[in-house]
Design a protein that fits this description.
Number of helices: 2
Strand order of the largest sheet: 1-3-4-8-9-10-7
Distance between the termini: 17 Å
Number of strands: 11
Number of domains: 1
Helix content: 10-25%
Strand content: 35-45%
């Protein structure tokens, strides 16, 4: 996934999804070309909902994260205000998940995004839509201070 055009997106080190220092987390690295964000994740049994089936709540967290990473990669600081999710087929434990997110609309205070998760065969596992509130001022500065990489 790494190439000259893809750069790793900043992360909070203790984030459940992308934090390198969160021992209980997923530790996913996200990359962006400035327009879209991408990541890969291979679920382990500890994050299953049923035998050999990846937990849907953790999938939701991955999709939320790939969508916010598109916003962060666009030099905006925002927080999730709304997310809708549609599951299409089960994600299997041990099988790689390919995540992608992009901005579909950028208004004054709200950024709308879409995200998707696919298996290695390209089959759609889940898709999401998100709305993120752009923060300014003191809160923006505090959030920026927490980001690394």
């Amino acid at each position: 996934m790494k190439s000259d055009q893809w750069k790793e997106v900043k992360a909070y080190s203790h984030c459940f999804v992308c934090g390198e220092k969160n021992r209980a987390g997923l530790r996913v690295k996200f990359f962006s070309d400035g327009k879209i964000a991408k990541a890969e994740y291979q679920p382990t049994e500890q994050f299953s909902g049923y035998k050999n089936i990846f937990h849907g709540g953790v999938m939701a967290a991955l999709l939320d994260e790939v969508m916010i990473k598109t916003v962060i990669a666009s030099d905006l600081v925002a927080v999730t205000t709304r997310m809708s999710l549609s599951y299409k087929r089960p994600a299997r434990v041990g099988e790689k998940i390919l995540l992608q997110g992009e901005i579909v609309e950028n208004r004054k205070k709200i950024v709308k995004t879409k995200g998707e998760a696919r298996n290695q065969e390209g089959e759609l596992l889940a898709e999401a839509r998100g709305e993120f509130f752009i923060v300014e001022g003191e809160l923006k500065e505090k959030l920026l201070e927490s980001l690394e990489r």
